[in-house]
């Protein structure tokens, strides 16, 4: 049996379309220890789903668990197509074909409710943002564009098309812009100094229409990746660039770093990719700081809203910025932390039962894929189930349950 056939059967099993005959063939193959050794690699390929890059794959424990469940599955029992009313009460999400049918048809659906209206079928995020200045009415930016470019002449999209802000009045040199992304949105901006910033979902970046000659200061809430342009003043000195958040002030000269500062998360984290940065705790919200650390590439600085500590440690820098390249990367993270990220991107709410929030997961997933498919993978490897709440198309809550 060639790897190609084994990979095909494994993928059909993971996708929930494996027939009883194919399941029997897969079980027969995997009883051979030589092919059991290939399962982990094939599961890793199936999980990556076309994503590229050096990222974690399924671990050995997950592969062993899926092997055990495939071999233990009763291939004589064909999957039963249940009514949508009975699915919510009778289908248990285990690693089997019936588990995948449950995720495909949803839980708690009324007869007139379409599957695509359930939170399990939430669409992935896309390019969405709004721009305002001086507290004026925000302008919704084009979703067909990835970002905007700020210059002294005005604002344009990346392709050079102008952004019409005439309805908001003409900004002055002292104006401050605010670029905001909602749940399920991301955007980019090139600042007046040439600094490139990627904004993740639910993020606000506040910056001046024109930077001062001796300092470049922006304010951030949420998560952003910065590629800071080097800029010199008239005397040839490099003008510092600073990012101000509630828990950290980050000062750089020219570098790449990721800064995560969501109000609903306990930790604020600055991860340095290139160059050097100084990270300090703000004093009474002012730019002058208290305790400070200087980071080298591959390090991160962490602060908590519950204490005054500032901790520097080694980071997985290649993983931290994966979101700006359209990839979720989970490295032995608890489900609660994972779903916190997913909730911003897919615009859903989460709750947990039976300690499901503590289950840990490793893998990577393309951000332009459906939520349903990602939850199927988590269910396959970790043995939990996901249920929707209510019958309303506006209900956005999913419950993760560990039995």
TrEMBL record:
Keyword Transferase part of the UniProt annotation: no
Domain FecR protein: 178-278
Superkingdom classification of source: Bacteria
Record-linked Pfam families: FecR (PF04773), FecR_C (PF16344)
Record keywords: Membrane, Transmembrane, Transmembrane helix
Residues covered by the Protein FecR C-terminal domain: 328-391
Transmembrane segments: 85-105
Protein name: Iron dicitrate transporter FecR
Native organism: Parapedobacter defluvii
